[in-house]
Amino acid sequence: MPPSEKQPFYDPIPPTYDQALAGSSRHGQTWPPPRTHNDDDVLEQTEAQSLLHRSNGAGSSSRHPNGYHPPTVESDESDIASLLESDTDDEEAAQVRREVEEMEIEEPTTSRGLLWGKRIGFSLPRWKWSWRPRLPRISLPRMRIQLPSRPEDDGEETRATEESRNNDEDSESTTPPRRSWAFPGVNGMVVLLIFARVLAVTIIFGFLYLVFATDFFSSFGGRMNGGFRFRAEDLRVHILGSVEPRRLRASVLHFSKYAHIAGTEGDYATAMDVKSMFIKAGLDQVSVDEYEVYINYPRKDGRSVQIVEGDNVIWTAQLDEIERGQEMSGHQPYSFHGHSKSGDVKGPLIYANYGSREDFKNLKDKGVDTEGAIALVRYYGTQTDRALKVKAAELAGFAGCLIYSDPADDGFLKGEVAPKGRYMPPDGVQRGAVSLMSWAVGDVLTPGWPSIKGKPRIKPKDAPALVKIPSLPLAWRDAQVLLQNLKGHGQRVPEEWKGGVPEVDEWWTGDAKSPIVRLRNEQDENTKQPIWNVYGQIVGMEQSAKSIIIGNHRDAWSFGAADPHSGTAVMIEMARIFGDLVARGWRPLRTIQFMSWDAEEYNLIGSTEFVENNLETLRNDAYAYINLDTAVAGDDFHASGSPVFEQTLLRALNRIADPKRNHTLRDLWNDRHGELEGLGAGSDYVAFQDIAGTSSLDLEFRGEKFPYHSSYDNFELVEKVIDPDFVYHGLMAQVVGLIILDVADRLILPFDLVAYGRKLGTWVDNLEKWASGKLDEGVSLPFQELRDVASLVVSKAGEFSKWEQRWEELTARNGGWETSEIGGARMDYNNRMGAFDTLLLDTEQGGGIPNRNQFKHVVFGPQLWSGYDEAFFPAIRDMVDDKNWSEAERYIQKTAGLIRNAAESLTT
């Protein structure tokens, strides 16, 4: 049943991608230029002139010095006859005769060389795989019949005839007639043609012999190292030069034109747009996948926050933002929390800083009674996950929770607010889901299995990922009134608890005698709401089953220009560029998949359901997952992910320069001591890395905070504040393009397992330091076992990586050719690198993080109470937090065993 919020978000129909692209007038003339109704006629006329009217001068044909003049109806026969019978130029007449006789009448074909030349650099080949092989044509010399010469007058003709008859009659009686056979004349031109065609046939058969003799087809395989393929450097240059910021701008403009919460008609429209763009890009296969999942939607009159006295309402919050949508954008969504609990509760208001477990413990230690109260907490701070704020309030006994945006964290105290600046304005509201993605991910009613027909579903009241108390988000404009009414209630807060809301001269905690606040959150809850993932792929030519996946979510809480459509724009641009390369004859060694996820904002549903529905395939065949979410929100490049990508990432950064800073991204990375960070639980990489064991990478240009998940995250903000010239959108596309090419098309998979071993050692040291302050007296844990296996990975990976040099030597000995045997060994080498992360999964029955065994990776995964933050060895950290020392020791040993097995798999 469609929710009441699902009113038409766009009216009339949103502009098409091409229309959006054409509207980019500020970036120069659009391409292709608009055509008039006479364009086709002009084009035909121009082509005819260019093909036929090669007039006098430099454009004349070398075979016709005087130019070619097409014959007219009146003069064509007489002109040819006069030319053939010319007494002054017999040599030219003979040449023309030969050309007329040898002429082939065929339909002219149109070359695409000029078109390709406009779209691709000169260094790439201009041929396609769709060529039609044709053997050279061999024609025999034609027999030429000698015509009698023309008589001068009738008298002479009569006399000659009579004489001929007399002679014939005389000869008939004495000698039988003789027949003479006339062989065609052979001249130099005929010999030259025969020789050229015999040579062409010889070359073709020689080439075919070479192909089969070198076992090309049996190994695909038996290829020359670097031969039969586009040059890698040419491809890199082409990708860097093909990124067009104006197209990226057009994508952001198009997809942020109207609101599109997951499951709504606006969301479906964007799904169809992505599908259309994938098809237009020329991807090999494009499809749409539907799941039915649990989603809630707000009701216009179902939400309220009020201060009440008995039955009297003293004050009512405004809740919603000032309308930011334009006439074409439809109504912007109401302010609410995804996956929030429905309810209508009342209680005394209590302020609890950032809403962490430590903050609520602080209140308890001060003697503040929180049972049945309404919590007021602020975003960010010591607890970054909004869902865990609500869960902590629930566990502390609160009846409801309000979360507001404080100016000290993301508002005017930081700088200019939107729409002129990047910070949250007074009415700005940060929406978001409060489902516990660090406890269970995906559809909350099917944790651990796909949400498809025929599969079981649990009831919402039993879902471990759903909180049990209602919540709503607030702007500081509304929180200001609540904070002012707390004055004199409870205790003064410590200095670090004070926010930046203006005109709140005193900050108090509140207590059981605080003003009574009513929190009402009545909503529509659909347990089987359809959502739509869109997939497109380019099939690899060598290891087609092995895949490199590029993913970005499409749904947004409102317009979503930066989150997620800075990433959407980059993914669409990648599909266009790589699809264009395929059209030119290139094809990657491994399959490249482009995936547009739905319902990411609701607990990462779309990507998780896909992973759960294709789990074994991904564990066996997926080499890498590259995630794009809020790809551009600033100008500082950051990357998080599996250490296998370290060298690939640094190679890409070294080739790309920031034009505003006049340094390469690698230089800027080094200047700020950048490193590949760990993955937390914040985006679509979670299911790939933590459940499927697919090595994952998350990329973004970060900046200061912006109006995150609010209606101020619109195209105007991106174009005027975040990335005015779409420079960093272009740089991100270049980085992503180089990484895709490196991982999908290098003969040897560019995974850095030595870096993985080094990182493991660092993370073990950090784990031990973190745990040292939590251990009870006399308790010790065997962290040395983890340190030893980390060293083993470094050692084994170092030896393993030497095989690449041996492969190069073997192919060099064979004259650059890779035999079938060597090719098979290379693919096995790739497979073992690609499987390293997968081998770090705890896949035994009931394995994974205890009580959260949906998460299987022993190194990566969210800690129970860390949410978005990176947390290495999450299961061990949970056990240390719980002071479950025996289980912690057991799981350290189990983790060490899995890492040891992964290291041993690298034995060559």
From TrEMBL:
SUPFAM superfamilies: PA domain, Transferrin receptor-like dimerisation domain, Zn-dependent exopeptidases. The lineage of its organism: Eukaryota, Fungi, Dikarya, Ascomycota, Pezizomycotina. Residues 783-906 form the Transferrin receptor-like dimerisation domain. Residues 345-433 form the PA domain. Belongs to the peptidase M28 family. M28B subfamily. This is N-acetylated-alpha-linked acidic dipeptidase 2. Pfam families: PA, Peptidase_M28, TFR_dimer. It comes from Clonostachys solani. The keyword Protein biosynthesis does not apply.
